[in-house]
# Entry
Amino acid sequence: MNTIISNYIVIVAISGVLNAILAILAYYKETDFAGVKPFIAIALTSAIYTFGFALELSGHSLEEISLFLKIEYLGMPFIAPSSLIMVLHFVGLERLINRRKIAALYTVPLITTLLVWTNEYHHLFYRSIYLRANTPSPLVDIVMGPWYIVHGCFTFGCMLASTILMLWQWNRMKRVYRRQMVTILT
# Structure
C-alpha cells in the first residue's frame, strides 16, 4: 500500500481512538453540564465515522470501500444534530429541547443511514460509486443522488444554526466561557 495513504490511515485511526477516549472520559466525568449526553453522542459518532473512513482508505476493492462507506454513515449523519443539541444546552436554551424535537431532529440522519445501507436498490443517496482511475491505491468517486443533497443541506443547516446561536450569545456569555465557545466553534 502507498506509504502516504498508510500514514494518513494511521492519523485518521488515531483521531478515531481519541474520539472514543473522549466519549469514555465524558461518560465517567462528574459534571453538571446538561449537554454532556449530546457531547458523548458527538464523540462516539465521530469515532464511528473516523474508523469507517480509515477502513475506507484501506479498502482494496469497490465492494470493500462501499461497505466501509456504509459504516461511516452509522456515525456521520448524527454528528451535526447532536452538536446543535449540545450548543442549545451550552447557550442556555435547553428549554427548546424536548423529546418530540429531538426525534424530529434525528429523522433525517436515520433516513440517511437507511438510504445509504440500501442504496443499491434505489440510488437515492449515491447515483453511482466507482473507482477513481490512475490512483496509487483504490479511491472512490461518487455521483450524488437527491437524498445526498437533502442530507448535506440538513447537516450544514445544523452547523449554521449552531454557529449563529453561539455568535448570538457571544456578548451575553461570561468571559470565562468564551474560550470554550471558541473551541466549540473551531
